[in-house]
Design brief:
alpha+beta, 5-stranded antiparallel beta sheet, 2 helices, about 40% strand
């Protein structure tokens, strides 16, 4: 996804600990998500879920599968 692009979380690829952590942040399948910023060279990625903005590491963010309309 490009910064400013939105989509729907399709699935979370990872173990139960990672899935629980994402769900605690509000990132779960079926929820709209917007990528707000990203840093170069696999730096942190900021996403907005509802009214909450969270920063995720590149490795964690790449495990969130998102369906982008269009």
């Amino acid at each position: 996804m490009a910064p400013g692009q939105s989509g729907i979380v399709a699935s979370l690829k990872g173990g139960w600990g990672m899935v629980r952590r994402m769900q605690a942040m509000g990132i779960r399948p079926g929820v709209p998500i917007t990528k707000t910023t990203s840093q170069p060279f696999r730096g942190p990625i900021s996403v907005q879920v509802g009214n909450t903005q969270v920063a995720l590491g590149f490795g964690l963010a790449r495990r969130i599968m998102v369906e982008v309309p269009g």
